[in-house]
Amino acid sequence: MNLKQIPLGPLQANCYLLFNEKKECVIFDPGFDGERLIEYMKQEGFKPIAVLLTHAHFDHIGAVEEVRNHWGIPVYIHELEKDWLMDPSLNGSARYPMEPISGRPADHLFTKEEKVEIGPFTLELLETPGHSPGSLSYYIKEMGSVFSGDALFSGGIGRTDLPGGDHATLIESIHQKLFTLPDDTVVFPGHGLSTTIETEKTSNPYLV
C-alpha cells in the first residue's frame, strides 16, 4: 500500500489517499478544496472506493459532498457524530465567517472498535475521543501506521475547548489506545507532519 498526504483548506487539514498498486484508494478527511482534490485524483488515475472520516469538524469534512457526489462512494463516520455532517452548529462551520457546511448523512456508521474491510483495505478502528466525542483513529497493521485525526500530533495534541471536547478523555485515549501500538508505528495526524509513537511517548510536552 501507498500513501499520499494532501493538506487542504485554510487550516491545512491533512487529507490522505491510501492506495494499492491498482490505484484503488480510500480518502481520509477530504477537508476543503474539493475541485482541486478531484482534479488531482483524476489526473493521477485514482479509483476511490470510500471516504473515511476521523471526525466531523468542518476543516475535515468541507469537501465530503463534492467527493461523494463525483464518484458515488460511501462515507463512513462514528455514530456519535452522525448528525455533524448536516449541522453547521455541530461541525463548527457556523462559528466562522464562511459558508456553513451542511450535507447528507453518512452512508455507514461505526459503532464500536473492530477490524473492518473496505475493498482491499483492512483497518482497525480505535475510538480516541477527547478532541471530539466520535473521534476515530485508523490503524493499519501491515503498514505499521495509524491515522490519528486531531487526537495526536507531532509534538502536540488536539484542542479540547470545542463542544464535546474533554482534555482528560483525550489524554486517556492517547495513552490507552495510541500509546499501546508498537513504538515504531508511524502516526499520520490531521494537521502537520508525521511522527512515531515512540517519539511522542518520549518527547511530546503534553504527554511526558
TrEMBL record:
Keyword list, A-Z: Hydrolase, Metal-binding, Zinc
Origin superkingdom: Bacteria
> What SUPFAM superfamilies does the entry give?
Metallo-hydrolase/oxidoreductase (SSF56281)
* Domain Metallo-beta-lactamase as annotated: residue spans: 12-191
**What is its cofactor?**
Zn(2+)
Residue ranges that the Swiss-Prot or TrEMBL entry lists as coiled coil: none
List, alphabetically, the InterPro entries matched: MBL_Glyoxalase_II (IPR051453), Metallo-B-lactamas (IPR001279), RibonucZ/Hydroxyglut_hydro (IPR036866)
The record's listing under PANTHER family reads: HYDROXYACYLGLUTATHIONE HYDROLASE GLOC (PTHR46233)
For this entry, the protein name equals: Glyoxylase-like metal-dependent hydrolase (Beta-lactamase superfamily II)
